[in-house]
Structure formats: C-alpha cells, structure tokens
C-alpha cells in the first residue's frame, strides 16, 4: 500500500519512496509518496483557506480532536512503537516511550485549549480599559528531523492546533511512517480538511518550497544547524516568525564526590542510549581527577555489558545508527578523534549482526581535550569523549566552553556545587544526577547560543511561538 500525502483533506499519491529498516536493510517498512512543489503549494493554500474557520472553531471542538488523537496514540502505543523502532532504529522500549510521550503531549494541549486566557488591565488614561489577548499566528510550517519521528511532530502540531493555527507538516524523508500515522489519526479524529496537511519527501524540494512560500506565517524547525540557518534567512526574507532547535555538544560533569553508580548510569544513558542520536545527548564527559580513573573503569565495564542489536529484539540496549550517511559521519569522527590524539578506550567498531544493518559499537575516548573536533562538533552518534579536569571550577569553565547550549548535566553529592552549576551552566536545561537527555513533556524545552533560536517549545511556554499577542484599548 502506498502511504499518501494529506492535502486539503484528500489523500494524494506521488512518486513512491521506500522506508528502510536500519536494523535490517532487506526489510521495507512501507512505500511513502513524495510530494512535489505543486503538492506543497496546494497544501499551503489549503491550510490558508482552512484558517478562518479553524481559528474561530468552538474550543470544545478543538479540545475533542486533540484529546481523541492523544487517546488513540496511547491506546496504540505498542503497535506505533514497533513501527517507530522499525523505521528509526531506537529500541522498542525507547520507541514505546516516545509514542507515549506523543500521546501525553496531545492530551496536555487538549487541556490547554480549555485554559486559554488573556488579561484585563486599567490604562494610565482615565476611562480607558486594556485587554491583552492571544491570537493564532496563522499557517504554521512544521519541518522535523528523523531522530524523534513522532514526538517532535507531536510537540509542534499539538500546540499549533490548540491555539487555532493550521499546519503543513514535512517530516524527515528517512522516517515518514510515524508522522503519516499521526496525521492519519488526526484526520480520523475529525481535523477538518486543510487544518492538518502532510507533505512527505525531500528537504531540498518539499522543505525548500515551504521556506520560499509567502503564505507560511510561522515556521518551526528541528534539525541541523546548516538547515536551521536556511530556515532563518528565508523566514526573515518573508517576514515570518520562526523557531529553531538545532544541535548540542552537551557536557556531563562528574565530580570527585559523585555517587559512582549514579554517574555511570547517567553517562551511559546520556551518551549512548537512543544510539546517541539525541540533540540532548552528552558527548563530553568532563571528569575531575580524583574520580577519573574509577569512573572510566566503571563506565568501560558497563559499556562491555551493553547489547547492540536489532531494535526490535528483546534484550537490545542500543539499536543501529539510522542510515549509512550517519554511520559514515560517526566513523569519520572516530578516526578524527584518534588522529587528534585521544585514546579510544572502548569500542568504535562496525558490528555484524544476523541481519544487514548499521550497527556500531559505542565508542569511548579518554585523554581528550576540549579543543579537539570530537569535543567541539556535533557527532550525533554513540561516541563520547572523557575530558579530565582538576576541579569543579575548571569543569564548569570547560562545560561552558562550547558554541552550543542545549542541555548540561552534573553528577555530584554536593548541594553547593549542584546549586552553583544550576545557576551558571550556559544551557537551556540543566540536569543534576540525571542524564542530559530525556525530558518531560509539560515543561519548556530549548537552549541557548547555537542550539536554539526563538521562544521555547513545549508546555505552556509553547504559546509564545504559536500565538501573537494583541493589546486592545477601549474608551468606556
Ligand atoms: N537537533 C536535532 O534534533 C537534530 C540534529 N541533527 C543534526 O543534523 C545532522 C544531519 O542530519 P539531517 O537529517 O541531514 O538534518 P537536516 O537539517 O538536513 O534535516 C532536518 C529536516 O530539515 C529538512 N531539510 C533539509 N534540507 C532542507 C531545505 N533546504 N529546506 C527545508 N528543509 C530542509 C530535512 O528533510 P529531509 O531529511 O527529508 O531531506 C528534515 O526534514 C545530524 O548528523 C545531526 O548532527 C539531525 C537531526 C536532528
Ligand atoms: O532528550 C529528549 O528527550 C529530547 C531530545 C530531542 O528533542 C532531540 O534530540 O531532538
């Protein structure tokens, strides 16, 4: 069956592209239609004409559609989790966790529809009243990456719809299956024609046509810094609101006084779970010298016990890398690390398994410095470098010496250091004795410096991007 694009409420065919399972490249997950530029323009036009009715729709209708969508996602989390693990390569428990998060996000924003509010203030002028209200921004373009195939579309589409906007979604070409399922659920849940449009296909065609359209009023993007820059430049050109979530080079600090077990578990999760393919993953483990050798020994032992295998197999801890291109990027960086003089203390080899897939042993470097490319550039794979430092002050300085600022973590039993780190880490999110990755669905998500641009995503803070504030003055 060809999975078609959804444009103006109709399923529209297009050139078929095969969605391949990275755990087994002989396994075709499904055939998905690729949209062309005309399809994209039709989707944008449909979103524009659906906007007036949707933005005025009774809030109970908007609430019901989002709630129904969230409930169905949660009811089908095992099945959708299998699809996600099969197309992206994260393990089945990780994939079911992501689907669950997507369902919870829809439920959360279904609730937000009923909590929309404004403010009434007195004016400095006698007899004048002021109302401050929020209105939809309009047609929202959503461009998403491959590493969270359902959660990222969910955390962009749910608030867009809750606040009365219409949507054109372009999911990553590598993983259209989960996005297609999400849109199909929304369609059946009653989203009117044109309110949610799905245009699958390549970024260079589908994404670029969205960037070039004067009729997209706001664009929300997650992906690489290079594409983020294109989104920014095109959006400025079109006077469009935009929001970018890009890379990370997140530090995880381990202090002498850390609980070793807590530190190792948080580091393994931060650096290697989800195959290191999270913008919140930690690829810099900054360790003070009193615990350094014990930490490296314990971490290496732990890595030796991890199973890298088919994402759907029970007992797999780390699934495959998403595709051949990303695998090449990971192994290139492993070579770069060696050439730069870091010591490969564990792993880094390509692995053969029962089925042909993109399997890579987790790679741990030691004796790295923060100036090396492996410590400065986003790798986006199961590769981490340990940087030895003297004390907390040096650890904090190294942690902040990066052009990114998404997430930051520390393992310590010292309240003083934990408190100081929370205040002084130059990142949008700080974790104490917890992994740098794996965030809640109901609180703000986003970073600083080169990691993010624009208002925060998720939770109530999402309203900043998806609404436009109006201040009205009335002479009574
Ligand atoms: N912050 C994060 O969460 C992520 C960071 N990355 C980083 O980016 C690197 C490369 O990954 P990649 O998937 O290529 O990232 P991209 O930035 O290319 O992809 C993100 C999204 O942008 C789309 N896109 C690509 N080109 C354009 C364009 N000209 N106009 C509009 N949209 C476009 C992509 O489409 P399509 O893929 O269909 O061509 C995809 O939907 C990774 O190795 C990693 O370092 C990647 C993913 C997520
Ligand atoms: O760590 C998380 O839970 C979210 C990570 C994420 O959003 C990303 O990698 O794009």
TrEMBL record:
PANTHER family, per database record: ALDEHYDE DEHYDROGENASE-RELATED
Pfam families assigned to the protein according to its UniProt record, in alphabetical order: Aldedh (PF00171)
UniProt entry tagged with the keyword Metal-binding: no
Family in the record: Belongs to the aldehyde dehydrogenase family.
Keywords: Oxidoreductase
InterPro entries from the UniProt entry: Ald_DH/histidinol_DH, Ald_DH_C, Ald_DH_CS_CYS, Ald_DH_CS_GLU, Ald_DH_N, Aldehyde_DH_dom
Location of the Aldehyde dehydrogenase domain: 11-471
Listed SUPFAM superfamilies: ALDH-like
Catalytic residue positions: 245
The protein, known as: Aldehyde dehydrogenase family protein
């Amino acid at each position: 069956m060809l999975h078609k694009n959804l444009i103006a409420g109709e399923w529209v065919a297009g050139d078929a592209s095969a969605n391949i399972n990275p755990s087994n490249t002989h396994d075709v997950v499904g055939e998905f239609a690729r949209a062309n530029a005309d399809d994209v323009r039709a989707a944008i036009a449909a979103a524009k004409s659906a906007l007036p009715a949707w933005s005025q729709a009774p809030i109970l209708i908007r609430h019901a559609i989002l709630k129904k969508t969230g409930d169905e996602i949660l009811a089908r989390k095992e099945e959708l989790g299998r699809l996600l693990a099969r197309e992206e390569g994260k393990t089945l428990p990780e994939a079911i966790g992501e689907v669950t998060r997507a369902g919870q996000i829809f439920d959360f924003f279904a609730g937000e529809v009923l909590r929309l509010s404004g403010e009434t203030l007195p004016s400095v002028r006698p007899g004048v009243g002021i109302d401050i209200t929020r209105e939809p921004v309009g047609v929202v373009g959503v461009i998403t990456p491959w590493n969270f195939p359902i959660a990222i579309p969910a955390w962009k589409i749910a608030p867009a719809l809750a606040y009365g906007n219409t949507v054109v979604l372009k999911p990553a070409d590598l993983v259209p299956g989960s996005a297609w399922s999400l849109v199909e659920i929304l369609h059946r849940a009653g989203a009117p024609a044109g309110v949610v449009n799905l245009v699958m296909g390549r970024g260079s065609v589908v994404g670029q046509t969205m960037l070039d359209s004067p009729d997209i009023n706001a664009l929300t993007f997650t992906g690489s810094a290079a594409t983020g820059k294109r989104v920014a430049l095109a959006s400025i050109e079109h006077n469009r609101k935009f929001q970018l979530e890009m890379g990370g080079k997140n530090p995880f600090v381990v202090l002498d006084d850390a609980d070793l077990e807590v530190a190792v578990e948080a580091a393994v999760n931060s650096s290697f779970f989800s195959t290191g393919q999270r913008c919140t993953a930690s690829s810099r483990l900054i360790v003070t010298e009193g615990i350094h050798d014990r930490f490296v020994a314990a971490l290496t032992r732990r890595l030796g016990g991890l199973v890298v295998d088919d994402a759907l197999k029970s007992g797999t801890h780390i699934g495959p890398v998403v595709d051949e291109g990303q695998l090449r990027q990971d192994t290139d960086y492993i070579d770069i690390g060696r050439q730069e003089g870091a010591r490969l203390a564990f792993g880094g080899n390509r692995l053969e398994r029962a089925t042909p897939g993109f399997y890579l042993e987790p790679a741990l470097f030691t004796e790295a410095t923060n100036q090396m490319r492996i410590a400065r550039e986003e790798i986006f794979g199961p590769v981490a470098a340990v940087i030895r430092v003297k004390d907390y002050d040096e650890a904090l300085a190294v942690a902040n010496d990066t052009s990114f600022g998404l997430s930051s973590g520390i393992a310590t039993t010292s309240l003083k250091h934990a408190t100081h780190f929370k205040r002084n880490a130059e990142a949008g999110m700080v974790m104490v004795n917890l992994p740098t990755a794996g965030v809640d669905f109901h609180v703000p998500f986003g970073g600083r410096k080169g990691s993010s641009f624009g208002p925060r995503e998720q939770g109530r803070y999402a309203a900043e991007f998806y609404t436009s504030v109006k201040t009205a003055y009335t002479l009574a």
